[in-house]
Amino acid sequence: RERSIIHLADIEHNPEASPEQVEFARLGGSRTRLMVPMVRGDIALGLIAVTREAPAPFSDRQVDLLRTFADQAVIAIENVRLFKELGTRNRDLTEALAQQTATAEILRVISSSPTDIQPVFDTIVQSANRLCDGLFSGLFRYDGESMHFVAHANFNPEALEVAQRAFPRPPAADVAVGRAILDRAVVHISDVTQAPAQIFQRSLGFRSVLAVPMLGDGRPIGAIAVTREEPGPFADAHITLLQTFADQAVIAIENVRLFKELEARNRDLAEALEQ
Q1: 163-196: pLDDT as tens digits
Q2: Which of 120, 164, 209, 233 has its CB 3.0 to 4.6 Å from that of 190, i.e. a possible disulfide?
Q3: Which is nearest to 255 in space by CA: 51, 117, 77?
Q4: Mapping DSSP to helix (H, G, I), strand (E, B) and coil, where does residue 117 land?
Q5: How far is 24 from 169, CA to CA, in rounded Å?
Q6: Count of CA atoms in the C-beta half-sphere (13 A) of 256
Q7: In the chain, what is the straight-line distance between the N-terminal and C-terminal CA atoms, in Å?
Q8: By the 8 A CB rule, do 157 and 136 touch?
Q9: Angstrom distance (rounded) from CA 131 to CA 192
Q10: Could you give the domains of the chain?
Q11: Dist. CA 109–CA 121, nearest whole Å
Q12: Which H or E element spans position 241?
């Protein structure tokens, strides 16, 4: 009787009814029950049940009608599932396009600003904060001794004052970016209240943080951080995106260094030719 219609008339006197079914009918005050499964392929999704006080069976027409309702319910469930899948795919596509656009924009800024790194940093933190649903974001340079707060997005005046007073400072594990620099690895804290103390958490009001080191030839030269107001993990796609932004920041720093070296050599050559 699995995945088939169950039709019990006059349940109390029906030899096919189990003791449990008889007891259930008595408690519910019903004499006849019709149950039609909702089935998609080989998968049972549910059932529709109708009871009545009269002991007479339901008519064939009524059984067919309930079967139609069950089929319609399956179609409705399938439509909702497909609609949700389509919505998820559309969101994924939209996010991917937004990330590609942001990446391309950063590359454009790198190429258009060969001697000034600041526009690149500003674009990176703004894109990171927007695409990772951040509360605020920051980018830090590391000179081998101290971390320097060089770019930010969405800091309110109070938070900005706290950050500007706190840096430069040596990297330490009580700051996510400091730990990322020391460990040369991603630091992902889904709830700072359940993790080792983060010294700026209370004053800046964030609950989760993601920090990614900027590595040049394996050597830490900075870090990017995104915070959120609510606890919870960052998606893998957001971690990958922030790593991409960190790589782009490293490329931008190296490009500026090489361009300035080239300019200096050109000046030296020009001076030598004039002598």
Answers
A1: 899 899 999 988 999 999 999 999 999 998 887 7
A2: 233
A3: 117
A4: coil
A5: 73
A6: 16
A7: 103
A8: no
A9: 21
A10: 1-112 (3.30.450.40), 114-274 (3.30.450.40)
A11: 10
A12: helix 236-274
Tokens 């060089």 label which residue? 150
User: Which residue, among 37, 36, 39, 1, has the nearest Cα to 18 in the 3D structure?
Assistant: 1
The answer to whether 181 and 142 have CB atoms below 8 angstroms apart is yes
The per-residue pLDDT for 15 is: 87
pLDDT band at 212 (very low <50, low <70, confident <90, very high): very high
Closest CA to 139 of 131, 202, 261, 154: 154
Average pLDDT over residues 199-217: 85
The SS3 call for residue 24 is helix
Mean pLDDT: which of 71-85, 204-218, 253-267 is highest? 204-218
> Whole-prediction pTM value?
0.65
Tokens of 168: 């430069």
- CA–CA separation, 101 vs 123, rounded Å? 12
205 Cβ contact partners less than 8 Å away, ≥ 6 residues apart: 135, 159, 229
Q: Are strands 147-153 and 136-142 parallel, antiparallel or unpaired?
A: antiparallel
Residue 1 has pLDDT above 60, yes or no: no
